[in-house]
Amino acid sequence: MNTKNTNNRKKITDILLSVAAPVAIVILWAFAVSSGFVRTAILPAPKTIASTLWSLLESGKLWRDMSISILRVLRGFACGAIGGTLIGSCMAFSKTVNRVLGTMVSILRPIPMLAWIPILILWLGIGESSKTAVIFIGSFWPVLLNTIHGIQSTDPKLLEVARILEKKRSVLIWKVYLPSALPSIFTGLRLGISSAWTCVVGAEMIAATSGIGYMIHYARELAQPARVYAGVFCIGFVGILIDKGLLALQKRLLSWSYTE
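-> structure tokens emitted (260 positions)
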């Protein structure tokens, strides 16, 4: 019973600590606006943003734009995650493939996503293909690099034991390398989904007529800061939900390696 009470108190403490900073920021924010330290044209009051957010939800506009952006993110992220995992595995397992692709990775990876957007628009137009490609590139690199790192960081002792037992190459890959690399791959997936959100918002701000990024950009042009902040809040909230979902999936599938 004491252990249960201790665990409950720990959970409550963790929850309070996790919300302490956001609550403090909102309180200071509201005080700064009400006291006139900050102009509402730059930073509207929290209640104004909440009211705007509620009106957007009631009208259905926010749901439509957010659903469009989420579908774009999932489509591009799925392609990036699959591509990053497969190519990363090939580079990690084959020194020849690593030498062939290593230079290209070193050249292309530092290019910022904003530089890719106009290039992809020239190649693919302003339709869904260019946005998917932007998200694909943004989510590809974290998954690729973490897959390579995870496989190459496999414990040498495990490999030595497997070789002593004369295990086949395929057994080494599926029973030793990949299980050892999964925690790192999941880290890459979490970084990739965050990058995917950044990319879709950037792409929608530059070339789109729908989506949460377009909504933020259009609201800025119309000098509607409350809508801008409402859109930014929604992006952060959905990003947290997706990240927590991946973290929960990691905890369930990799309970043997999960740490709080």
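The CA atoms of residues 2 and 152 lie 44 Å apart.
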